[in-house]
Write the structure tokens for this entry.
Amino acid sequence: MVSSSHEAMHRIFQEFPQLFSGVSEVLGVPFPPPISVQILPTDLTEARPLERRVDTLLLFDTEDEGPFLLAVEAQGRKDLSKPASWAYYLSYLYAKYQRPPVLLVVCQDRSTAEWATRPVHIGPRQWASLTLRPLVAGPHNMPVIRTTVEARKDLALTTLAAITHADNPDVAAILKAVSGALRETPEELSHPLAELIAQGLGKRPAAQLWRHLMAADLSFYKSTVAEELRDQGRQEGREEGREEGREEGRAAGVAESVLLLLTQRGIDVSDAARNRILCCENLETLHRWLLRAPTAPSAEDIFIDE
């Protein structure tokens, strides 16, 4: 079954094809900016009963170097059968479209990214007829964007970087920077990017943090995930049978996120601080603590000015 992380890592190139220019520059293999982009069918199935599908396939046209194909593959783990499939994709695409193909592999795991980076020589030792050399974007080379100012420069690149750094110890600061940038972005752009981040984080601990960052100001985000948060609140209210129960359930969730964030950063949380966080029932106060947690030097510093 295809995971939401898998979908987000390649679908972002369908939603924002110009992202490849930023990614290729980060990877040190700059491509000229496209003058047009066309999304192509991803079905690479042959007439015989053998189905092969690339995750995302785009046709770029450039003014200086002409058109080229971009095949984007999201790779969650090492798979020794993949190099053969990737080589097939590139050969098939070159034969079908008569355009030079480029393979971009996007990973969230560093060891998988480093594995995918290694060239694969196809042929005998004396003479390799083909060499598979994909571009790879992952936690080993994508930028770690921790400030809102930096995040605003290229929101699509910032989004992909946040997805690839889902397991980074500084993911809280990364997501806080993205959240700050999206709050200042028109809805038609901020909503799909926020949705892609929610998908890309999957079931990782950072996903809960992202949900609460969005919940801190749902006015800027009204997509599927936001609706889930509202539904969750309504369900909690029904289970408790009163408004007080709903508020307590939300407060408990935010309090757990504050503690999770501090723990993930390696911050020592004293019993007194832990009790103060868990016993707080004021959502506004908890949200202030949640926003301070990514940068606070100690657990006690989130209580400043309280």
Observations:
- The radius of gyration is 22 Å.
- The longest strand covers residues 66-74.
